[in-house]
């Protein structure tokens, strides 16, 4: 999956302001998920209802509104008690 293909798919639901395909640091391959930022909340809701379960490049999309993680996580964030 490329950012351009993702942008083209979601553009059918409104203005796409950003796309980010998450890549594996070691292999350089896509990890199987991405983030798409839509122009408005209404466009984002339309993308969820229209594209969730749709097929793209032979795979079913799971589209939902991203939720912010609590605490930051990871080596750089929140928890430092090793």
TrEMBL record:
KW RNA-binding (keyword) present: yes
RRM domain mapped to chain residues: 1-68
Keyword Nucleus: no
Keywords associated with the record: RNA-binding
Protein name, UniProt field: RNA-binding protein
The organism's place on the tree of life at top rank: Bacteria
Gene Ontology molecular function: any one: RNA binding
Gene3D superfamilies: 3.30.70.330
């Amino acid at each position: 999956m490329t950012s351009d293909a993702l942008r083209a798919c979601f553009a059918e639901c409104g203005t796409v302001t950003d796309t980010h395909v998450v890549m594996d640091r070691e292999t350089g391959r896509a990890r199987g998920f991405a983030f798409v930022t839509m122009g408005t909340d209404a466009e984002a809701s339309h993308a969820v209802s229209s594209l969730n379960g749709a097929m793209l490049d032979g795979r079913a999309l799971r589209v939902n509104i991203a939720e912010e993680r609590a605490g930051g996580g990871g080596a750089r964030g929140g928890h430092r008690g090793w």
